[in-house]
Structure to design on (376 residues):
């Protein structure tokens, strides 16, 4: 058995032809391609199996796999998920909608290949994981140091508005990211904080689709959130009991009237006019909390809107300075973007013994130009 590689294959009832081509594209030619078929078609090599829900018992009883990922069609599982989890426990590694194989299948496989955990003993796994983490940390340190030298602060200049952002990396899993969808008429910013890399990947996939095809109205954003929630729920990435599994903000700014609206889930906070504008929201992200999580307003010429992420608050709390970040933001509010962001991150990293924070941290600064033309 090759202990330095992960083994996985598709059951006879899986969407093999469709899935095959997507997974093949992950392998580097020459390095993986020669061994590709044996990874999928040699039943003597115990590994991870992609199968239908009706095949799980077979693979579990016959000890033919180290685990399964269930491929299902839309609406096929329903309430069966609970009984499947109860009957097979950790043997089920996850669920994957076969209509979304093209979008999420390759990401999942790539993640498994990178982890290489399922085809090893506990000792092998711990040893390998230690080496992987050590190498990853070295690479992350190089990238982070280079990033802070070359791109210390991100700036986007749009029609009548400027967006600044600053980010510091943490070593906890998951993390934060934000992305922007922009046009001549509007700006949409999405910010997320998750506790798993799978959740981050799923969200990125949905936002990419939203950027291409999404309706940015309130109803369109609700549709985007509902689709995202359905996917995360099917993969057990969110919970009604733990809102911190996925914290998300999405805000749309009209670049003609400077009216803004959005949805706010999580520990992040908004500041404007030298005061806290929107407090943290501990409601879990689901359809029933849309109304309570919706916000809207209008920005004036020269007005600032600053968002401080959940990770920034968590890092300050770790230092025993829970309210420090808010104090820094409000004390510096009359200053410009660079002064505010640099001071906030200086205080955040002050006396930190490690190169990285415990959690990713982000601050987004948005300011309307003093001479911006506002459509009435």
């Amino acid at each position: 058995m090759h202990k330095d590689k992960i083994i996985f294959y598709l059951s006879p009832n899986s969407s093999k032809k469709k899935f095959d081509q997507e997974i093949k594209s992950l392998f580097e030619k020459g390095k993986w391609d020669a061994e590709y078929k044996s990874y999928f078609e040699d039943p003597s090599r115990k590994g991870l199996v992609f199968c239908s829900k009706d095949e799980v018992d077979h693979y579990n009883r016959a000890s033919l796999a180290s685990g399964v990922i269930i491929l299902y069609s839309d609406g096929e599982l329903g309430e069966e998920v609970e009984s499947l989890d109860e009957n097979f426990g950790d043997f089920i590694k996850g669920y994957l909608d076969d209509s979304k194989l093209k979008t999420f299948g390759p990401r999942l496989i790539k993640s498994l290949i990178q982890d290489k955990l399922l085809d090893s003993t506990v000792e092998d796994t711990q040893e390998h994981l230690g080496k992987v983490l050590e190498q990853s940390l070295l690479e992350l340190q190089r990238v982070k140091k280079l990033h802070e030298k070359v791109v210390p602060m991100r700036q986007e200049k749009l029609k009548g508005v400027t967006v600044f952002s600053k980010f510091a990396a943490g070593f906890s899993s998951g993390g934060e990211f934000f992305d922007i969808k922009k046009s001549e008429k509007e700006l949409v910013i999405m910010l997320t904080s998750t506790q798993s890399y799978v959740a981050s990947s799923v969200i990125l996939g949905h936002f990419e689709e939203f950027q291409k095809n999404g309706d940015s109205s309130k109803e369109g954003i609700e549709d985007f959130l509902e689709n995202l929630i359905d996917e995360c729920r099917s993969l057990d990435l969110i919970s009604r009991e733990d809102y911190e599994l996925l914290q998300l903000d999405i805000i749309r700014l009209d670049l003609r009237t400077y009216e803004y609206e959005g949805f706010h889930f999580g520990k992040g906070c908004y500041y404007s006019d030298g005061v806290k504008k929107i407090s943290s929201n501990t409601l879990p992200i689901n359809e029933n909390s849309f109304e309570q999580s919706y916000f809207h307003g209008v920005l004036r010429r020269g007005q600032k809107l600053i968002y401080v992420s959940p990770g920034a608050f968590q890092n300050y709390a770790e230092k025993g300075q829970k309210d420090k970040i808010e104090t820094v933001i409000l004390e510096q509010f009359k200053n410009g973007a660079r002064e505010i962001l640099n001071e906030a991150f200086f205080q955040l990293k002050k006396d930190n013994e490690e190169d990285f924070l415990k959690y990713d941290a982000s601050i987004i600064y948005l300011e309307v130009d003093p001479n911006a033309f506002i459509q009435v």
